[in-house]
Write a structure and sequence with these properties.
Blueprint lengths: L7 H5 L52 H6 L8 E3 L11 E2 L4 E3 L20 E5 L4 E9 L5 H8 L5 H16 L12 H17 L10 H4 L3
Antiparallel strand pairs: 1-4, 2-3, 3-5, 4-5
Helix pairs in contact: 4-5
Length: 219
Amino acid sequence: MSDLAAVLDELDNDPTSGHIGGVQSPHVRSPHHSEDSFTHVPSLSRTSTPSIEGESQLPSMTLPAAVLASSKEDMKYRLWKAPASFEDSCFRLIGQGSCFCITDKCTVAHKTTKHFHPLPGEIYVKRSSTTAFVAPSISSHSLRGDLLDSWFNGSATIIEWNQRFALAKHEEKYPVLRKPEEKITEVDIKAKKVLMVSTLAYRTPAKKKRVSQVQLQID
């Protein structure tokens, strides 16, 4: 692949590209922590070729078990962004803590008094018109306006949102096509997916360890 940008549309039309590398479920991450454990991916120009010599891999995409249990596999969900001011927000945890109330001036007698503490401008996946999942989440500050519009005007499964957020977070740390000071666009997300899928597909398999002649000699 000599031109990374040239294959973006081709990958986008590939029905198998939605499940990146067959990644399923991730380790639990606190929704307040922005740091994830990712393997470094080198920056690329539009005419460079992905490096496949390292141990580059897809970003961690684990979701808490409680969130997976509370979501439906084929259900499409929309997004919700935490407001700048929390003065009238409820934010009480619901059920086993997989969701929290996003209603302003809430009058519901929730069974718990525990509150969730979203970050201002943080994006979450809405479970319903009054609740949102505690994970996954991503800051809106590093995303360009047209990407935000596309995301908020659409819907996806909880796994698909989780994958998109993970790719965007990895792209924020290790840019593929954009300059580090630029905000992330849809093209950047597609380029990151191309890079990671191709890296896994063309990575040289690990060589089997050779057994020494001494070990093979049996008295």
